Structure formats: structure tokens, C-alpha cells
Amino acid sequence: MEHYTMNLTLKVWKQKNKNEKGRFETYPVKGISSEMSFLEMFDVLNEQLVAEGKEPIAFDHDCREGICGACSMYINGRAHGPWHNTTTCQLHMRQYKDGDTIVVEPWRANSFPVIKDLVVDRSSFDRIIQAGGYISVNTGNAVDANSLPIEKQKADESFAAAACIGCGACVAACPNASAMLFVSAKVSHLALLPQGDPERKTRAVNMVEQMDKEGFGSCTNIGACEAECPKGISLENIARLNREYIGSVFSGSSDKA
Amino acid sequence: MTLNSKIPAGKLESKWKDYKSTCKLVNPANKRQLEVIVIGTGLAGASAAASLGEMGYKVKTFCFQDSPRRAHSIAAQGGINAAKNYQNDGDSTYRLFYDTIKGGDYRSREGNVYRLAEVSASIIDQCVAQGVPFAREYGGLLSNRSFGGTQVQRTFYAAGQTGQQLLIGAYQALERQVALGNVTQYSRHEMLDIVMVDGKARGIIARDLVTGKLERFFGHAVLLCSGGYGNVFYLSTNAMGSNVTAAWKAHKKGAYFGNPCYTQIHPTCIPVSGDHQSKLTLMSESLRNDGRIWVPKKQGDTRKASDIPEEERDYYLERRYPAFGNLVPRDVASRAAKERCDAGYGVGSSKMAVYLDFAAAIERYGKIEVNKQSIENADAAKIRELGEGVVKEKYGNLFEMYEKITGEDPYKLPMRIYPAVHYTMGGLWVDYELQTNIPGLYALGEANFSDHGANRLGASALMQGLADGYFVVPYTLGNNLADDIRTKAIPIDHPAFVAAEKEVSDRINRLMNIKGKESVESFHKRLGKIMWDKCGMARNEKGLKEAIEEIKALRKEFWGNVFIPGDINEFNPELDKAGRVADFLELGELMCLDALNRNESCGGHFREEYQTEEGEALRDDEHYMYVAAWEYKGDSQYELHKESLDYEVVHPSARSYK
Ligand SMILES: Cc1cc2nc3c(=O)[nH]c(=O)nc-3n(C[C@H](O)[C@H](O)[C@H](O)COP(=O)(O)OP(=O)(O)OC[C@H]3O[C@@H](n4cnc5c(N)ncnc54)[C@H](O)[C@@H]3O)c2cc1C
Ligand code: SF4
Ligand code: FES
After folding, report:
1. How far is the CA of A172 from the centre of ligand 2 (A)?
2. What is the pLDDT of residues B631-644, one digit of tens each?
3. A254 domain-assigned
4. Which residues of A touch B127 (CB under 8 A)?
5. Does residue A57 belong to any structural domain of this protein?
6. A170 lines ligand 2 (CB under 6 A)
7. Average pLDDT for A63-76
8. Mean pLDDT score, A248-257
9. Which atom of ligand 3 is nearest to the CA of A89?
10. Do A162 and A202 lie in a common domain?
């Protein structure tokens, strides 16, 4: 693979805190290697700003391996940037060429207020999980792990839904700022397993209710979430959630369909 | 002070059973009056907090990320061990115990390790009950694979995302307790000191990372589940935020630090690509089930991998260690890679890499598939295609990650890999109950030193973190808190809280007021370079002595010339990082001191002066069969306490994987 260096112009959202108004700032960055990750390019810019005695740009990140779900940049109009199934931290600079301009914004949604610059508050996701995104089993209650065989295909499907990293890109990508993909991924993960069956109805109802309470928009089947989800969470999960939800609302939430 | 490891008397197999049936209990009404602080929400912290919440304790959890679900544990890839013997291949509690003791190069406690092996099976049961979607066979039962240092298949996994799935399980259990009101969770909060009242840990000072405000919290006990300190090397496979601060603050308040120099360097990571490198990415050890490691037989060979014929390749692990081959333990595999590269056989543009090649596995699996599907006259392309499919199912996400980072397709070209700092076996010294030498202060998971000796086997950290949190601390904490049921919550205007907060606040002010010229990042990089060069994969007396002086000088420079932009009372990641790097600058010195003291090679600690003729680590059991527990006595002053390791069941011998 050929490596090269480039000079770029970055337009980045700066916002001191959630109460103050934000604005775009323009920064030239020089000598960026095509081997860098997108966040390493931000590291270079931030080092440059610190060297000038200025405040660096705040952004969330931790694992830099595409798994913790912390990183969250809206890059040239796309959540996590242009690469399919890729988080911001795994996007690499070989995507860009010398002279490019890159616009970077935070996730924009009422339920994700900006904390500073590109950092937003996603605690609403924790509260949605608290509303029912679990199986009620205390430590020590469990039976032998192999006492209940699970069809491989079901287990694989459940795993695919469980791969959600809770990043919120689905919300950022959705014109309605709906959290349906996130919620449906959790509902599917658990509903597909026999262990999750006893609570499946109440779980769906309670999580959706909490999602509404948090002020996320409603789902109108646009599909932008699936397109931008870095973990390939499928829209089929939303269909499944709708079935679970409708089933339980009409049958009374404690009944099993 | 003498170190009492509190290992229960009696036979190895009955120690934990006896402990559990005789330890003191706290009745449910009293539990509701007892408050427990849990620092960290990784596997250790989340599992402990959830379990203690379920039992009825009043729990508070803290993490510096924006959600407990993002703790570094999320990134664990390969799997978790358990002695289930589902494969009927001869596994047992004893064998897992033995493998772990041997893997740790006879530098861990028998009692602790046996307990770990004993509870391992319950962990898998618990996780499956929570809905962790482990990989399964077509018959619907759980699947297993092998990890290094073992000859059985006891590793449970969820593709290359095992840590994620286990942590999500523990996180969900934790959120359920939050919903029930048993746990209060504080995210984007960093613990910056322990509060001691009458010689006991009774609370913490934490900083709200959004507002910058310092806050005080009371607890009858404090559990540190704050992870490892591999980031002292700057470059490591750890998450960017992983740090030693919580453990280091405890150390400075009197908690002993155990075996700080025991660092694990993982053999299979994506090599450094340039100065911009901010972290290193692991390629899971599970890949060594199917990948073969090799370098060219000729020094400085510049041919492409595919142009080097089979007979001109040196599969050096298979050659040197025929019994374990590519699945030797990590320390052995890492040193062997370094040896080849140092000798001039490395590959890639930097020449600091070796190949991890899947071609043989792809062909083998392809042929099996052809047979399974009864395809007649399959050509090489068909076999390849089917084989790639099998490899994709096993390691797809790792291959994808490799391609995203390097831009190369590992299905077609062998991966280039090199060792990188990965895990720290050292940590706060704890007794059998996971209590540090400070009463009321516990350490769980990677933050403690307990179970892995001088080298951890793959897939055993997840096991240990969850063992500590789900199955050990719920008993041992009760045994101690039973004596505390009359202790009322201490008001946070108690002088001890006031004094601790002032200390923290003074230090932050001091940092902000330096107003120097050099960035925190730059100091961190410089420290990392010293550590990697002189306290990394190979260490020697001269280098370690130099490193100690260099670190002292660098620390001085840091406190005179670091520049931290922004303000104290706002969201300020540079300030957060400055505090962490300041602690690393102290820890690094202690690590070198410990490495210098240990005049032997064992596990991940390789002193060049102590090796066999074949370059294998040479232990000195007569003089160093002990845990080095260091006490902080003031700036650059440490006193060594020794806990001798008594082997009653296993007979330490030279570790051989040949
Ligand atoms: C890339 C990678 C892959 C791995 N793969 C495997 C594997 O396949 N199998 C295996 O067994 N092991 C694996 N490991 C090792 C294993 O993941 C870790 O050892 C383990 O997850 C550590 O868990 P923990 O709960 O102790 O700490 P962590 O998960 O590191 O959690 C630390 C917690 O402490 C909090 N914290 C830290 N300091 C503070 C503070 N001052 N104030 C407040 N909160 C604080 C953090 O916010 C976080 O919540 C891997 C490690 C890496 C790096
Ligand atoms: S569904 Fe996808 S985009 Fe949404 S939070 Fe989960 S991983 Fe992120
Ligand atoms: S930093 Fe963890 S997913 Fe990007």
C-alpha cells in the first residue's frame, strides 16, 4: 500500500458548554499521513493547538478499536464518516487526499445535549437499558450453561443484535432523531434467547416508553440508521421490536404471545 | 507490618468451600445500612456492583467514561476460560489451576489460583443466564477453542467480541440494580483520592469531569476495580483512558503495590506505523489456533511473502517449541519474535514485524468443507473460497479490523504482527479476601496483583475479573463488614473528608499553575519511550538504573514545564490526562525499581543477565520465590516487603513448552 502525506482544512464545531451557542472554526492541518486514523489526525491538530497555547478540541474516544462506542463524530454530513460499518476511530486518513476540506460536527439530537465541542451526553441510553434491557437473574441463580441448547442460528442472530456498541450514530443519522435501532437491537438480542423470553413483552413496552420519555423522535422507516450503524445492526430488528411491542400492547403486557 | 495473605488452612480443594461455609454474614436488614463504593465498571466493577446491589448493599459506582458500558473490558476479544470440560478432553479444576500456576511461572499463590479455577464454571453459567450470546455448535451447545499455554479447549467466546458481550451482560445486571434503586451510578467521574478515617478506607474524593467540581462520597468499604496500568508505556493495547491513578492514590495512602514490574507483552499486535501512533491494536491470541508464525530463513529478505517458498520460511515457534508450537504462552512468543527481528529476520518496511499466516488454515478448512458438502472435483479457488468462509466465521471482525488499519487484505496476504504492551500482572497487593493492607480497601480485576503470577494466560483476565466480582467479593466483603454493622455513615463534613479534598484541590491548582511550554501528551510519550526501551520486553541492570534517573528528571521537568490549557471548573480532558500522566511518572520509577530488585527472569519479566543458553527465562526460586509488595514512604522512597510463596501441591520446575 502506497503511503502519502496531505494538507487539509478542518471545519470543526466549537461549543464551550451546553448553555452557550456554538460555531464552526476553521483549522488548517499539515503533514497528515495516510496511515493515520481519523482521531490521530485530531491528535495532531490538538497538539498543534496546545503548542499555540490554545484550547484543543474536545471529543469522546477511548478504545480506538471500534468497540467501546465512545467516539462520535459527524463527518461531512455522515455519522462516523464515509466508511461502511466503521466507527470514527477506525476511519483512516487514506480516505482523504491533499487539499480536502472536512466538516466535523457532534451528534445532533435533543436527547443528546452537547457537553463541549464534539462531546455529547448520551446518558439517555443508559436510562433506556435501565427500563428493561436486561434479564432478571441474580448472581448464583444460574443453571448449567449447557442445560439449555440454543439453535445456532438463533444464537448467531442474537449475537448480531448484541453487537450494538451504544454509540448513538443511528440517532444522529435519523432525521427524526429516533433511537429505534438501538432499542430494537437490545430487544432482539434478548428476545431471541430462551433466557430472555419470560420478560420479553414488558421489556419491549418499558424500553419504548422510556425512549419516548427521553424525547427521541419516532421511527418513520427511513433507514438512515441502518446505513450509518458501524456494527451493521439490521432494520429487521425494528420490525421485530414492532411485533413484540404491538403483541404485548394488545395482549396486555404481562401475557406471552 | 507483616503481610498476612489469609489463605485458609486445610487442603487446597477445600479452602474456599470451608471459607464460604464459615465466613461471617450480614443479615438483609443490616446490608441496607451498609454503603459500598465501587471504582470502575469494567468486568470486575460491574459484576461486583451488580452482585452487591442484588444482595441489598447500598452501592455507588464510578467510571470516567460517559457510560459504565464503555469500560476497557469491552475491548477484550478472544475469550474466557472455564474448567467445564464440555469437550471431554481431560480438563478439570486441577488442570486449569495447574496451567495457570505454570503459565505464571510459579509466581502466584496456590490458594487464590485454585479458587479461581473452582469458580470458573459458575461464571459461564451466570453469563449464559444473563443472555451472553456465546458461540455455539450446530447441536445448540457451547463451542470452545484453545488459547496459549494449554492443551485443552476450554475457552468460551463470542466471535472476537467476548469482552464486549460479557461486559454488556454485567452492565445490564448493573443497570437493573440502578433501576431498582440499589446502585447509584456516577459516570464521567474520576476518583482522585481515598479518604481514611481511623486507619480505614471510608470514602473517596471524586471529580465530576463535566463541571470540574470535587465531590465527597462516604462508603463503609471502597472497592478499586480500576483496571491495569499498561499505558505507562504510552503505546499499549489498552484503551486511551486506562490509567493507574485510582490504584496509585491508594498506594500513596499506604496500600502496598505488588509486583509492579510484571508486565505482559502480547505477541500479536499490529506493528507501529509511525510517530503519530496513539495506540496499538491487538490481534487476538485466538488467531494462533489457526495462524502460523514465520519469518524468512534469509536475513534481510525483501521478497514479498508470497514469493518466499515454503522451504525458505522459518516457522520458528514450531521449530523451537514442538509440543506447543504456535500456542506457546505470550511471554515466550513475544521474546521469540523480538529475537528474530533483532537478529535481522524481521519483515515489512520497519523490519520490526513477523508474519501470521492463514494460508494453510484456509486450505485445510476449505478441504474439510468440500468433503462436508460432497463437492466433486473442487478446484483450488473453490477450496480457498470455502476455507475463507470458515476463517471469516471464526475471526471475521479481527480480519476486518486489520484491513481497516493497514489497508491490506489478510485473507490474501499474511498479517504483519509485533509484540506490544497488553496487560499488567502487577497491581495492588491483596490478601485472599481481595482486601489490600488498608482495612476496608479492596482491589479486584486487573487492578490487583493476585492470580497470574509473572505471566497471565490468555482468556484468564476476563475469568479473574468476573470471579472476583460475581463470586469472591460478595463473600469476603460480608465477612469483614459483619463487624461494621454498628458504624453509622460518616458525614462528609468530617475533617478527614475536608482534608482529603483540600489535598486534591491543591494538586490540581498546582498543575494548572505551572503554565509551562510542553504538552501533557509529549511528556507521556517521553515516559513511554524510556519504559519501553529499558523496562520493556528485555531489561538489564544498567538500563534500569538509567531509566530510574531519567524518569526522575522527566518528572521534575513535568512539574516545571507542563502546559495545561483551559480551566479547572469545566470539561477539560487535558487536565484529566495531566493528573494521570503525573501518576504514571511516579509509577514508572517503581516499576524499574522492582525490575532491578528481581535478579532473575520469570514470565513477562526478562532480565537479560538471567537466561539459559537457549535464551529461555532463568528463574531463581531460592531467592525470588516471593511477592514483592512495595510500601510508599515518600518521594522516591519505597520499602520492600516480601510475601513468600509456598508451594504445597505443585512442584515448581523449569517451565518447558518444548
Ligand atoms: C485489546 C485487549 C484484548 C483483551 N482480550 C482479552 C481476552 O480475550 N481474554 C481475557 O481474558 N482478557 C483479555 N484482555 C484483558 C482484559 O480485557 C482486562 O484485563 C480486563 O477486562 C480488565 O477488567 P477490569 O474490570 O479489571 O478493568 P477495566 O475494564 O479496565 O475497567 C476499569 C474501570 O475503572 C474505571 N476507572 C479507572 N480509574 C478510575 C478512576 N480514577 N476513577 C473512576 N473510575 C476509574 C474505568 O472508567 C473503568 O470503568 C484484553 C485486553 C485488551 C487490551
Ligand atoms: S444501533 Fe448501531 S448506530 Fe445505533 S447505537 Fe447501536 S451500534 Fe450505534
Ligand atoms: S473509540 Fe471506542 S469505538 Fe471509537
Report:
1. 10
2. 999 999 999 999 99
3. no
4. 145
5. yes
6. yes
7. 98
8. 58
9. 4
10. yes
Tell me, yes or no, whether A98 and A129 share the same domain: no
Whether residues A133 and A56 fall in one domain:
no
- Closest ligand 2 atom to A171 CA: 4
Q: CA distances (Å), B508 to each of B224, B374, B420, B503, B588, in order?
A: 22, 70, 32, 9, 21
Extract the C-alpha cell encoding B404.
Answer: 481497516
Q: What pLDDT was estimated at residue B349?
A: 85
> What are the structural domains, with CATH classification, of chain B?
265-420 (3.90.700.10), 502-626 (1.20.58.100)
- Where residue A255 falls among pLDDT bands split at 50, 70, 90? very low
- Give the residue, out of B51, B60, B64, B472, with the most ligand 1 atoms within 8 A of its beta carbon, to mutate for a pocket test: B64
- The verdict on the CB of residue A104 being under 6 Å from ligand 2 is no
A66 touches chain B (CB under 8 A): yes
Predicted confidence (pLDDT) per residue in B282-340, tens digit: 998 889 989 999 999 999 999 999 999 999 999 999 999 999 999 998 989 999 999 99
A240 and A133 fall within a common domain: yes
Whether residues A131 and A97 fall in one domain: no
Pairing of strands A23-33, A101-105: unpaired
Ligand 3 pocket residue status of A168, Cβ below 6 Å: no
Q: Which of A1, A122, A155 sits opposite B407 (nearest CB)?
A: A1
Buried b (16+ CB within 10 A) or exposed e, B596-613: bebebbbbbbbbeebeee
Q: Which ligand is nearest to the CA of A67?
A: 3
A163/B164 Cβ within 8 A: yes
Residues of A in contact with B230 (CB under 8 A): none
Q: What is the pLDDT of residues B602-615, one digit of tens each?
A: 999 999 999 999 88
Please indicate, yes or no, whether residues A168 and A227 belong to a single structural domain of this protein.
yes
Q: Give residue B208 CA to ligand 3 midpoint distance, Å.
A: 22
In this complex, is the C-beta atom of A195 within 8 Å of any C-beta atom belonging to chain B? yes
Q: Is the pTM of this model over 0.90?
A: yes
Indicate which CATH number applies to the domain containing A74: 3.10.20.30
**Cα–Cα distance, B454 to B261 (Å, whole number):** 9
Q: Do the chains contact at A130 and B74, CB–CB below 8 Å?
A: no
Give the number of the atom of ligand 1 that is nearest the alpha carbon of residue B192.
Answer: 41
**For chain A, what is the domain count?**
2
Cβ distance B63 to B189 under 8 Å? yes
pLDDT on residue A1: 66
How far apart are the C-alpha atoms of B295 and B413, rounded to whole Å?
14
Query: Nearest 5°: phi and psi at B186?
Result: -120, 105
CATH of the domain at A217: 1.10.1060.10
Classify residue A142: in a domain, yes or no.
no
Round to whole Å and give the CA distance between B534 and B48.
37
Domain that holds residue A196: 123-137+149-249
Helix, strand, coil tally for chain A in percent (to 5):
40, 15, 45
Q: Which of A78, A85, A165 to mutate to test the pocket of ligand 2 (most atoms within 8 A of CB)?
A: A165
ipTM above 0.95, yes or no: yes
β-partners of residue A28 are A9
Which strands form B354-357's sheet, in the order they lie side by side?
Answer: B263-269, B415-424, B354-357, B292-296, B313-314
Length of chain A, in residues: 257
Cβ partners under 8 Å of residue A169, min gap 6? A72, A79, A80, A107, A225, A228, A229, A230
If asked whether residues A203 and A155 sit together in one domain, one would say yes
Question: Are A131 and A98 part of one and the same domain?
Answer: no
Q: Is residue A256 part of a domain?
A: no
Which A positions 102-141 lie with beta carbon below 8 A of chain B?
115-116, 119, 121-123, 125-126, 129-131, 133-141
Residues of B with a known catalytic role: 330
C-alpha cell at B375: 463437492
